[in-house]
Automatic annotation (TrEMBL):
It holds the Pfam family DUF2878. The chain crosses the membrane at residues 15-38, 50-71, 77-94, 106-123, 135-156. Keywords: Membrane, Transmembrane, Transmembrane helix. This is DUF2878 domain-containing protein. It comes from Pseudoalteromonas undina.
Length: 166
């Protein structure tokens, strides 16, 4: 199972780097990697339902962030490659990021608050997005929005898991 988690994590990193380096040109390649992630999933039904339910919430979070001026993409309001990046991330929740599902909600929120904005800061360094404010303001503001969204996605994942096991 540990190898499975490492493969899942590595595949997510491939999608992350492809999206940041290739942007719109990464879509086909990302789709192939995501198909492989789904093929390797040990919980296909739960993962499929999670993507269907959580992807709109994730993209709404991104849209709100753009509307609030936290950052902006080269493409208004959101680039299509961001959908693929989020799908890959959602496919990590029950595998390489499963440790988050064992945390209390406040702990998961804190982890996301501390670490998630770093990915967007890195995105700004790759020039795929531009932060709308200084990093010291962006980090806690976007971190709180992202953490609230992702903590809710983790809650939703738990409910989907209960439903699938019935």
């Amino acid at each position: 199972m540990r190898l499975h988690s490492l493969i899942n994590f590595a595949l997510f990193q491939v999608v992350w780097f492809m999206c940041l380096l290739l942007e719109q040109h990464a879509i086909v390649y990302s789709a192939v990697v995501i198909a492989l992630m789904f093929y390797l999933s040990a919980q296909k039904k739960q993962d499929a339902l999670l993507v269907l339910k959580a992807l709109p919430l994730a993209l709404l979070c991104e849209f709100i962030a753009v509307q609030l001026g936290l950052f902006e993409f080269k493409v208004d309001p959101l680039p299509f490659w961001l959908v693929f990046l989020w799908v890959a991330l959602l496919l990590c929740i029950n595998t390489s990021m499963s440790f988050l599902t064992n945390l209390k909600p406040w702990q998961a929120f804190a982890v996301c608050l501390l670490f998630a904005p770093g990915s967007y800061w890195a995105g700004s360094r790759f020039e795929v997005l531009e932060l709308g404010m200084p990093l010291w303001q962006f980090w806690p503001l976007y971190g709180a929005l992202w953490a609230a969204t992702f903590t809710f996605i983790l809650f939703l994942n738990g409910k989907i898991g209960e439903f699938v096991k019935q």
